[in-house]
Amino acid sequence: MRAESGAEVAKEDVWDQVSALVGRFGHAAEQYAARFDFGISPEVIRGRMEPILGDARRIRLAGWGALPGGPVLQECLARLRDLAPKTYQKTVARIAGVFVIHSYFRSRMTHEAIGQAISTSSFYELTQDLLDDLLDGGGWTVREAVPTLRPMPPPDDRFRGLDERTRRRAGELHGTGAGWP
Length: 181
Hints:
- This protein is mainly α.
- It folds into 2 domains: 14-149, no CATH class; 156-181, no CATH class.
- It contains 8 helices and no strands.
- It has helices spanning 14-36, 42-62, 70-83, 85-98, 103-106, 111-137, 142-145, 162-173.
- α1 (14-36) runs antiparallel to α2 and α4 packs antiparallel against α6 (111-137).
- The radius of gyration is 19 Å and the shape is globular.
């Protein structure tokens, strides 16, 4: 895959970037609430944003190892930053969006469950951005791109055959019946 640009991306920690993005989003939302009076006070928005910023700070302070799959996610993001800086920036912005789990669910989740949701959704966003780049900007076909994104084999028997089922289903969805490669 070719990098989208030669632009250099600051090597600051992803969680610092996520915290900054979420913080700016919250601040902008407070300003809009004050300016346009759409029925939610800036204080309510601040109250909703604080747990989200708290999660970002907690994860940053605990380190990558405290997040399920954190070291792998860290390595993937570091490689993406070097390979495709614009895609990296887009992915980090999407990961910041992952932090904004609806408050209804957040209040019913443990810190561990929030970490799992953030980690899983971050991997999903990373994979989607990579696939998008391969197909749109890299000149790859789906047949060429999909094998590059295959995960490591699962550690137990519950997932055996998942890859074959996924291929079959993809073929059904695309009308070929044969599935992907």
